[in-house]
Design goal:
By secondary structure, the chain is mainly alpha-helical. Helix content is 60%, strand content 0%. The chain folds into two domains: 36-91; 97-163, no CATH class. It contains eight helices and no strands. The longest helix is centred in the first third of the chain and has 28 residues, at 33-60.
Amino acid sequence: MSVLAGLHELVASALPGLVYRERLAFSRVTPGNDDEDDKDARIARLTRQLVDAEFNLEIGRKRILPNVRAMYFRRHPDGGTLEDAREFISSAPKPDASHFSQKGGARHNTKDNSADESAGAEVVRRTRELMEQRAEQGRPLRYEAAAKIVFEKDRDLLARYLDEPGVR
């Protein structure tokens, strides 16, 4: 008779009609393993939030464009480390003022040359147009929120934008 025979009988009495075809298997969990896993998951989640905040800060300061963050997370899907993010940001090309101007240059506002414009230029143009529309409606948007809406509406543009070589 097995040591676990009482447990088998208890399970059988709780679930009438159950026929055992396999033995029940148990494993011993050492105390603290779950806590360490939870701790590791929390640390990874907080690190990811710090990395994302670092990118948001640099985008807000207009030191990098949002596609730099997208390129980083394609390279580091797990989020990497804060040091990795800072190194990536410091090595990223610095955008010129035309990427952040309120009115934008003629190349961003002219629809005639839209076939010739890069994906980045199209994103800027369409994002600015959406920001202007919303401002006129009394519902202003920040650049990042407007760009997110543009990307959600046009997934092909997002793919072209992410695949475009980093010339900025």
